[in-house]
User: Fold these one by one.
Assistant:
Number 1:
Amino acid sequence: MIAALIIVFREVIEAGLIVGIVLAATKDVPYRGVWVACGIASGVAGAASVAAFAGAIANAFTGSGQEVLNAAILGFAVLMLAWHNVWMAGHGRAMASEVKAAGEAVAAGSRTLSALAIVVGVAVLREGSEVVLFLYGVAVSGGEGMARMAIGGTLGVLLGGGVAALIYTGLLRIPARRLFSVTGWLITLLAAGMAAQSVAFLQQAGIVNQLVETAWDTSSVLTDGSLAGKVLHTLVGYTDRPSVLQLVVYLCTIGIILSLMRVVHRVRPKPLLPTGSVAET
Amino acid sequence: MRQVAFTLFLIFAIGGSALAEDLVKLELTIRDHRFEPAEIRLPAGRLSVLTIHNADATPEEFESTALKIEKVLPGASTVTVRLRPLGPGRFPFIGEYHSDTAHGAVIAVDGGHP
């Protein structure tokens, strides 16, 4: 029961933090709940099918299918997060200030919701498939009663969800005018961390063999395995022994997203769109 | 933007295939939720490839925060992972789905073959 609790808790926290940030970043956008719920639901469905085809996926690409899939999923999420941030840099001010009455700006905000729903979906997909495989393994070996397993798993979901809810309510305490700049930073760091993680998978698979040297070792201070390390890993991409390439990609991702945001911000001084038009980005 | 990074990856990947010859090869088997052998030695500072055979019918996740490896092994399967060059030391790993019994470590030793 404890094993189930710990594993489910760890995976739910990772996905939950991302859901919490997405929810805070889309505060006041109509139908965001539906989008996020769709993201979670498709993530769960995807996780079950990834688990069902784990064998086939693992053997694809001469045994590196799992890493390639993970790296691709993460790369895709990075693109979606970057797009959201860049779009918000162009249009977000209208949503942050009093012009909420100008409904079109808010409605236009739902454009990047699909991108964020995808991010939520892939986060749930990645973490969920590990939970499904673990539970399947226990069920097959029959080591532990199903009831105890279910209790452990449910507690794990509740605890993980609770931590995510704390993050979300914490973010909401930030005054509305500053909320979007805070969530913008969070999403930028989230994306950079995911990009670095995606590099780690490609290096693990032996697809990328450059700059594999360890950049630094802070494992004596804070390990990735600890709860704080895990949370920081998800939020800002912390890892106690990053490879040099991970560090390079991390910094490049932040640099690219920030400079795109600045460019878009300057090009579009007037964030409001003409009434009834479909936002063109 | 990310395409630039991806192009870099491709260039790196092609350039890196020349390195493949000096790989240290390591093997590990999971049986009854235990690692055999429980300790593997390799020379420090070399790129290595670890082949893991899962002889159990149940899936397992080979995980090591020290080695930075996370790899799911379906039941009765064989997978390979690349280990980055390691400094001298002990790098523990576990089978996450059976962490009460599945423990092991990679030990990197200075100089030549251990």
Note: Chain A has one domain: 2-267.
Number 2:
Amino acid sequence: MQKLLWSAIFIFTAFFSFGQDKVTLSGNLSDADSGEDLIGARVVVTELPGVGALTNDYGFYSLTIAPGTYTFVIKSLGFETVTMEMDLTANKTFDLEMKVEGKVFGTVTVTGEKLDENITSAEMGVDKINMKDIENIPVLFGEKDILKTLQLLPGVKSAGEGSAGFYVRGGSADQNLILLDGAPVYNASHLLGFFSVFNSDALKDVKLYKGGAPAEFGGRLSSVMDIKMKEGNSKRLSVSGGIGLISSKLTIEAPIVKDKGSFIVSARRTYADIFLRLSKDERAQNSILYFYDLNAKANYRVGKKDRIFLSGYFGRDNFGFADQFGFDWGNATGTFRWNHLYGDRLFGNTSIVFSNYNYKIKFGGGDETFQIGSEIQDINIKEDFDFYINSNNTMSFGGNIIHHTFRPGEIETGSDIGFVLNDIENRYSLESAAYISNEQKIKKRWKVVYGLRYSNFTQIGPGNIFSYDVDGNVNDTTIFGDWEPVSSYNGLSPRLSVNFSVDEKSSVKASYARTYQYIHLVSNSTSSSPTDIWVPSSNNIEPQVADQVSVGYFRNFFDNMLEFSGEVYYKDMRRVIDYRDGAEVTLNPTVEGELLYGIGRAYGIELLLKKRRGKFTGWVSYTLSRSERKFDGINEGAWYAARQDRTHDISLVGMYNFTDRLTASATWVYYTGNAVTFPSGKYELDGQIVNLYSERNGYRMPEYHRLDLGVTLESKKFKTVLDPVSGEEQQIEKRFESSWNFSVYNAYGRENAYSIDFQENAETGQTEAVQLALFKIIPSITYNFKF
Amino acid sequence: MKILALQFAALASLALSFSCEKVIDVPLNEADREIVVEAVGRNFIGESFVLLSKSGSVYDDGGFEKITDAVVTVTDQDGVEVIFTHDPLNPGKYIAPTFEALPNSAYSLSVVTSEKTLSSSSITNSLPVLDSLNYILIPPGFGSEDTTFLLFYNFVDNGDETNFYRIKAWVNGEAGSNYYIGDDVLGSGQPTSAPIFGTEIKGKDTVHIELLSMDQDTYKYLSTLSSNLTAGPFGAVPANPVTNIDNAIGYFGVYMVDTMSIIMP
């Protein structure tokens, strides 16, 4: 397998060797106001139609053309276009700080994307979110949230009311790779999923690959969510913050050395616990319930060719009851990055990434304590290169190696507790990958991205490794020493995306991708819980594999004002995981014996119509889909609807700018209820009424729909002063900006079913179906400021 | 772990204090009627019994059909057969006034009904011994307006065998509805001291505790039964308990039991 990869690399490089009669223009594009790098900004050459370059995630571009005098046009949506003539006879570096467009005329939409990017790019199955939209779209408790907003796009489905978990194209929630500055975030939810761990004030760019992710990414079956934090204002000190109904937050960004380096620190904390203390209910008064998170990032330009970044996230949820019970969980991530330019065309990025997720549950106080903890920790070393071969080819290649540590159960007891419990043994593994991929323009109409990713997963010692019989009972134990390989898996993932531009307004795209997943989330509860544990592939658990094909049609109307896309996909999944009935997941050393392996299939059609400009903006998205599973031992081996199967899913999002200062927004969502298992009978045993189940997921929850409304009122952006010399009135931009956001979640008070339980009425003894709905109408108000 | 689930659900319900409940109409399919066996052996003479009934419709509350004409036999490892006879005073209940389960033994169950023949087996471990009960005082304000007690039971696990336990508590003769079950995977051969959570115990209450030891199949049945009973948004995925009876649902378990009582001050 390795041999094959190296031959592929050799062929790639041989194929793209080029003459030396060309010159390269390269450099960095950034925002003149904040110094933030511009992602996806473009440099085009007027004299050479179809020739241009896009900036990468760090604002770097490189364009190789024949020597000559050219007119370069530098564009980025929301920024003033710069046109200039340049005599390009030798390799040249050109950095540019771009000014925000039309600042005097009010609100701007900041996104690097070119207006017809959706048509020209070979990417498909990609959802992007404009950070400005996130501010206006109404959400629960006014707590703006990228994960919630992404769920309004086609193919992305909410895992349920009040859940930050999401399903992509019929895959389960653990099949999404969520990366924050390259570090995996293992549990993206706060407060049991009502909020995501991402504080949107600290974020710069979010991209979700639903299929056909670049070869750079791997390790999860269904999607990759690539989130980038802001770098921090390198021009001046800037402070922003918000005070909301349940949380407040503050962000500080400033230069370290002006134009050379900057930092950003953003913090958020909820204060729902303060309201609990006001409650009349004693149980509520003694309860502890809050979360906080902290994002920090710093970057420094060491020289012309080197730049370093250090970023981190730390967040924690705390749940407790007086001093008798405590439950806290959270993620910590850290990323060190070093960008280096090897010449004008080779951009290198070295990353060292740390990620940890853990939870702790504590009973009792003082010396009479009993504490359970669980943890997953990764250390990842990654090397990526972008090689700008010529104006038609951009190659990416690189590799990484991750060391995973799994601590399923650590138990600590206080000195007075009177008994000792043994920890559950740790598990270790190495996950490594190498990839190569090329984006190639072929003539004027074709753009192809093709690549190959090779991955390996090796379970290593030390440990007592169990084998299981067909019923899941241990039948053999082998002892392995430090770093001794236990089992190993390889995966070769081809990736291909093709774009054929029919004309300037429309294109047809197709993609294929194979993905492997080596670590699996084991959860035996209906909703996700912080105590769900990650288990590695092992001598008993094989990796999950998926193949996905998709075809799409993209068309823009009215000078790119309206954007339409339709995509069809089919995903075939193998060795997906489910559990034996009644599996014990928590603190079980032989949890691998509780798992069952099966196959899955998911297919659907996704439609999106988006209005991107004008006073009214927004979109309509519709998904028609199916997601099914088949396991020996579940549902008598027949296909059944997966929990994430939802036939129809509709989202309507509208935003209207009444004036520069006043924006109103509304969202409406509708979806078919989840597939659930309800009883088909009951019986009496041990003095209790027990439900009798027949088929798995044979019923549906009631359909879900909800309307949210929001209004954002911004302060005046300009003040009038008299010019001391001329005496004329002048409009001067105010430094202090503020806004009020009012929103109503579930405006018409629909009681959407969160759960349905079949229980006996305490008075009549009659069995009833009792529906629990979480939120009726929730109004909220948030004040945001920036200076 | 069930205790954890309870606490977790209680706290979660706080977080969900905006929620509202209502009774809705959900049409359900009708499963075939199944024979339900609850066969319990105990190490006290005359306390063993077998209950036979049939499952019913979810919305039908007319009670469950009892099976009164079955032939029920329990055989030990030496081939000694004991017939459990139907107790006309308790329809569906079969009893054997002389039967006494012994430690480190194997038993098999045979039930012959007019429809079909059912069978199962169960083994016993050594007799567990409850060493003591002790308690701590909980001052008023922690979930109750009165002074309450948190009762701890203490015993030493037998390190020579794999054990599975259930603790049952009665306060003034009334059984608690929580399932306290556990294995010795993490504490084999260790002294164990654990509290009876979730049962309110006040001054002058009489508390009766039973420590039951059982085999793995019975433990599997009870743990999956308790998951079935707590299914819901924070509970397990709905599933039938894992039965050890061929041809029916329910279970056959022979328990080794030790008991202890205490009157609170």
Note: Chain A has six helices and 52 strands.
Number 3:
Amino acid sequence: MTVYIMGDFPSALKFELGIYVDQFVRWAKLNFDGFFELIKKVSLALLLNVEKLLLLIPWWLFIALVFILGWRIKNWKTGLLYSATIFLIGTFGLWEELMTTLALVISAVIISLIIGIPAGILTAYSNKLEMILKPILDAMQTMPSFVYLIPAIMLFSLGLVPAVFATTIYAIPPVLRLTNLAIRSVPKEMKEAALSFGSSRWQTLFKVELPQALPTIMTGINQTIMMAISMVVTTSMVGARGLGLNVIKSINQIDIAMGFEAGISIVIMAVILDRITQGMAEKFRYPESSE
Amino acid sequence: MPTKIRVENLYKIFGRNTKEALRLLEQGKSKDEILKITGSAIGVNNASFEVKEGETFVIMGLSGSGKSTLIRCLNLLNKPTKGSIFVDGEDILKYDKNQLKKFRQDKMAMVFQSFGLFTHRTIQSNVEYGLEIKKVPKDERRKIAEEAIKSVGLEGWENSLPHQLSGGMQQRVGLARALANDPDILLMDEPFSALDPLIRREMQLELLDLQAKLKKTIIFITHDVNEAFKIGDRVAVMKDGEIVQIGTPEEILENPSNQYIEDFVRDIDRSKVFQAKHIMQKTTAIMSVKDGLNVAMREMRSNGLSSLFVVGENRKLEGIVTIDDTINAIKEKKSLKDILKNDYFTADPEDYVQDLIPKAAVTNYPIAVIGEDGTFLGIIVRVSVLSGLA
């Protein structure tokens, strides 16, 4: 007989949390099937339509649009640089993959914003809600992105929907947090001024709080986009197509050439999206009052 | 003047356990004790006062005295814990959501310490805000806003953003925004405290000018005694959430109701509060221009004076005679008219004593106080101007 003094953890002490989670997910799926079906349908429809739209745009028009955006946000040189790098992706033969990936990112971001911004506003209005959400959001942001794939597969099996789902969940926290922060940091007297003129709650929100919060919310949107892009490769493991899938393939096949091209394309996409949305956020920033 | 606002036994307690705090307060526990026991902070403690229509009512107190809390109760930005507030006879605490909105849109407008301007809106659209909420048609509200901007002297800045203006100008925008709504009542929460002293003085004078024209009911919050006494028709002094004294500036200066107020008003420059009418002596020692030199002689001798004011019809001031001139004139058989002098100073009853000091320093005679219609009201002896006005 072996005597354990400082040895292994006693195997008799067992708490199989995983099983319960598994059971919960199964239960949820069984009982809320209609709900999950709806999510499935809506997100799939959104994704496919965005993708269709993006592929409908001729490549030269797309590059021209990127040029114009870069030019408006900074100057024509920036526009030229952006459009040239996008052109480069095309020469890799990855144009369609780029559009597919972009569609995934855009769809996930749209859903994230639709959920995240109103949730952020509600959180700003309720200290209780903030108290509840804060640890959840902290956990969401520290969790490795791979973990999101597990519930996604459980609920939606393989395919595009779990990819959108996992990306959305991963991308929501920044915009939610920053919307909350932005609404909360609207100066008290400004809100009081709005109320003192007899504004309703909605009027105060739309005429004062949201315009004041917009620059910060734009920063949140920018970060949400970045989070969504960072999920591109991960979600390819559950069935997303596009640039991410090329990266996964190249890892499996140890194909350095393909891996590099796909990788650099993702980087280019990320940098350009970052710069463009950051530039937009900058444009929304009002100069602060001098006193 | 009819009563515009009546506040009765108003309490505002911040925190969760307001009932318990209220009970302890009634037992006579202090603010600090209650905070320790219940965790609730007393904002306003049993405040009662009335404000008449067209009156400028100043609430003065140090920071933390509850004055800002009190003014925010008047438009229910703070919901009072207990008590009632009547505006035009209606208890506004009984208003529902829509009545309250309507009340805020029509009756009251507020001006804030750090201006509370909407930094994302132009000056024009800041001033239009209240009208926008009231759903005034666009053209009309543009016109009204332009008018209001003009009345505070900011024409030409309509399309600027608030950050492009100086502090004083920003507060003018705040004032214009409030005036554009044409409220009966203006709530001003330390409106000039964030401004530098020179601008502050200028704004105070402008407010007095505006008020003379508009005759609004104004509730004005300040921590500055000089400002309170300069602007207020009546002043309420607050301490620890309680109103400790209400009265006209002169009443408070002359009869501070306790040590706290005495300390408060010690620093005040009395010459800025007292006016000619307050230190004027209503003398009977005058003579008519129809009387002769002998009457003058007698008047001066019996009153122990060295000079005497001479009035004509309707007590209109004609001049002054001195005792030396009178004695000489009697000897030389001259008439009163020959020795009448005009090198005295006059003052309006509304003149501040401060402004009389230079006159008092150079004159040899008392200063004559003359009413609007030119009648002689009384005299101010030099010594009362110069000796610290005690």
Note: Residues 197-214 of chain B form the longest helix (18 residues).
Number 4:
Amino acid sequence: MKKNSWINVGFQVGALVVALLITTLLLVAAGAPPLKAYASIISGAFGSSNNIENILITWSPLLLTTAGVLITFSAGLWNIGIEGQMTLGAIFATGVLRALQNTQLPPALIIILGILAGVIGGALWAALAGALKTFGGVNEIFGGLGLNFVSTALTIYLVFGPWKRPGVGSMSGTQPFDEKLWLPSLPHTELSLWALGISLLVIIAVYFMLRGTHLGLRLKAVGKNSKAAFLMGVPTWQYSMFAFLLCGAFAGLSGAIQVTSVYHRLLPNISNGYGFLGLLVAMLINYQALWAAPIAFFFAAVNIGSVQLQIQYKLDSSFAGVLQDLLVLLVLLGEGARQRFIKKG
Amino acid sequence: MRKNVLTIALLAMTIVLVLTACGPAATTVAPATSVPPTSVPSTQVAATLPPVPTVTPAPFIFGMLLVGAKNDNGWSQATYDGGLYVEQQIAGSKMLYLENVYSGSPSYPGLTASQLADQLVSQGAKLIFFNSDDMKDEALKFANANPKIYVVGVSDDWTWKDGKNYTVSANQVDIMGRMEYMKMIAGCAAALTTQTGKIGFLGPLINDETRRLAASAYLGAKYCWSQVLGKDATKLTFTVTWIGFWFNIPGVTADPTQVADNFFNTGYDVVISGIDTTEALVEAEKAKTAGKAVWALAYDYKTNCGVAPDICLGVPYFNWGPAFAATAKTAVDGTFAENFQWNGPDWTNLSNPDTGAVGFAKGQGLSADNGTKLDAFIAQLAAGLNLWTGPINLQDGTAYLTAGTVATDQQIWYLPQLLEGMEGASVPSK
Amino acid sequence: MDVELRDIDKTFGAVHANVGINLKVPAGTIQGLLGENGAGKSTLMKILSGFIRADAGEILLDGHPVIIHSPADAIQHGVGMLHQDPLDIPPMRVIDNFILGRKGGLTIGHAAAERDYKRLAEEFSFSIDPDSYVDALTVGERQQLEILRLIWLGAKALIFDEPTTGISAAQKVKLFTALRLLASQGKTILFVSHKLEDVEGLCSRVAVLRQGILVGEAKQPYTTKNLVEMMFGKEISVGARDPCAGDGKTNLSLRDLSVEDYRLKVQNVSLEVCCGEVIGLAGMEGSGQGLFLRSVAGLVRTVGGHIFLNDTDLTGHSYHAFKRLGAAFLPAARLEEGLATGMSLTEHIVLAEEAHGFFIDWDKGRELTRKRIADFNIHGTPASPVESLSGGNQQRALLALLREPLSLLLLEHPTRGLDIESTIYIWSKLKDRCREGTCILFISSDLEEILQYSDRVLVFFSGKVTKPLESKSLSIEKLGELIGGKGWPESTSGKSK
């Protein structure tokens, strides 16, 4: 056992070293001094209180999408449609805020209703993917991808059409909401402790749900072997559907938070790839919810910090994505190699 | 499996942190590439460099957020060049910039323009240019959140006391050029050249700015069509097609290549570009190669005609340098104050890089004869011809300016619709 | 081909699966390999066929040492293996499955392959339509397909891992005929089994493994007592028939039940089962007994008739409604349908128990699991993933998942692939259930098992079903005839489609 755990660590460190090595080579190839480039990422991420706040702002939606995919992964589902679910959350939240912004309702209530609507919107969109899978036999990957396209088209329609800014036809988004409809944030930032608190609560809840509840165990059984789970008394399609709904709810919450606390309006691509990034985080942590928070934080920090690569070294800032993808890929490869190694050894 | 996967990630962070620790040491060894903090008092610099008697001023660092690419041959390149001009004019100044900054840009997933401005500030920038209307709200928000940083909102109107959107923003200056005149010239060149009497306007998104520029082009075209060529104004077709953003975003905007092709395939022989990028010129050249007699007018950037010189009738462009430099100087000497600038051309020399805010460069596609006529038109404008004079009706027929009334700046800036006689959407209808 | 294994050694974690095994098998021999579950037979054969690598030792084929990296490698060397759970890919046509695995470059056309397939099938008297789909085949038919495929690929030594489990008596006869034919052609047959009867009837030599060690070899004629002693270290006697005495109260009542799938119709079956009664379902694989059993579990929708469980009409209800009234179904495909790979025994036990509250009390779950492990003699720990257990232990684990009390237990092949000891143990557990009033319906291809443990028997043939027959009135011969389609009255309750 001891020996094995050292082998595990060895493979993981190996994967990490290789990832850093490749990244370093890429940096060199791009003409950036690697050590200074890494240093610039760190300073871009942690160099000022503004930057740290920005990490916390991006951490929150990433935590939520990661929490969501942990649930669907647990049930054996690849919920690629999470981007669309997040978008629908943003659309529903925007819709409710728009409908109620001129009423006499207290702003706090409007915000709460908006966020709830986002949760429902995300869940409904996920239910659609789930229904396609359960009743239509459409693989959730294809269904999800299709629904992602539909959600993008819907956003563009709304932004250019019914919800356009008066006299404006631009993809810059809808008219920003009045400040009273913003989720309260720390002064002069978009950092909302509410958003952060809710996201952390959600990831903690998901951790406990997957680890210590009958619900979590049944989801896992459905994911591992739905036939066996069915024979053991688990209503399998209902649980698959439940996993979709819950994941969609978290994605929708994430979208609603983008609207109420970051952008204060609806705009195309409001999901910003957070759903896909959440999938990456979940894969990197091998679906262990315990690690979701630190790794999501790390990814958020890389996202923020690597802007410096463009400022200082004129590297495309999508470099952050390359680093994240490499890390996940190599850790998965390392895990495969480890299993082969253990089998042979 | 294993908590150990996580050890991995923690290790990753640790390693990176260790690397970072090495970072600053490395910078001190190679000061040439490092950016010394601006706050270092000059006396200290003198102390570390005893034999040098002259006191070097702390470098002035400013940042620029570009909506597109710095080499887009259009709007972003023009503003980027404005930044280079500042570097030239203010000794020791240095520009930091980020490209492709717009809502939902995949280059910065989840980051807003103001967050990106934070990154520029953390590298020492004291003045930030937000180069697009797309960042209008972000510029104001950033200015309010960072009272010690100076902000320039290019094309914004927050600080226009007589504007509709005036908002107190003490550390902000908004700058725009009076492109209306140059668009009139472009419209005139199009009308002089068209054989079919059908002019297309490749529009970006719809807002106050784009409406007034499209309308100005129409006014110029109508004037030259009827007054210079003496043709029937009702026989001139002027159609605006909007793509939805300043440049093509696949899957989100309409494709400007297709829009331009569509114009050329339906009898329009001159297309005036109103977007940041060069699709109109590229497609016109293709159509010409295929045997069609077509032309295009470029936009934004002085040498934009170079993309397809043969078919280019000319380019109305921005010359941001002088205004940017003047504003940056106030930031350096501490006299920076909230104001709004809508700068006009230098009629004495339209192409002087050190004076006018806007200019027009004729293209090789313009015939010599039409060139002469166009020069005459420009001379009239310089002499005070104002096409924004009534009677002017809005597209829906309502009177906007009664006969003889000259439009106020507000009436031009906040034009609510396209004008009577223009085809295309005044407000988004999708 | 002569096959020789020298000093083969293999360890899995703490388990020493093969301890320095030496075995020589000359060409044309049918070599038996006996041993109880977990004795190391499958490991040894997987080493020979390239699925796993030995820690030490060497393999010689026709006297030449070879190194086998993979199953593809093995077949290149002429070694092919048929697994206990057929490894083919279900949603494929038979002929495509047949061609699969052929080395590229030969570009054998479908037509040529199909000709070869038909020729080989005829040679061995197998009759599987090359255009049917593999997932519609019985285990026995899949096995036949796999034999044809391996021979076509050029196998000169064939390994059979428990080939007689899960196939019908008639298929077994066909299989043995085919094996003898192969041996007479000079091919080497390695026959892995725990069934004495099969080994005695078929193999010219036998090697016995116990706890990873080759404990002895024997040649025909064998003495059963000797073999059993080698296998278990002690002699085990098969228990006497012990019918359950129910209390006479009707528990399960089927009235004119009809069920069908795309191949078969089972019609108008009526049956009253008392508490504690055991009903055996006999028949060749795919004769309708599987369909029937699943319909009584609510897993397959019936097309006519009624099902009453404890006087409640459950017709048309789902499996979970049956389950709520105390029914349970245990599938034959343990790792495909019964257990969830990647989950531990504790997780299975907790999952199968009724949930109390929202949170799981893992301590209580582990406690319960430890108790079940002891009760059911499972070799494993609460944290063991189910796939790490041997087949017999998986089957015991499945039984350990059943709740108490049950009114109806439906079993597919409850002892398939298990050694005698496990079989006896499992039936003792099942009989305990009967004494508590559970009635049992089970499918088995093992006629002795049917006769020994059933009170009454239903025999299936192409969807036709006999009236319930008192097992006392039946003999193996009579049962075998019925299964083979002989001795049926003219008008029967079902007919094939």
Note: Chains C and B do not touch (no CB pair under 8 Å).
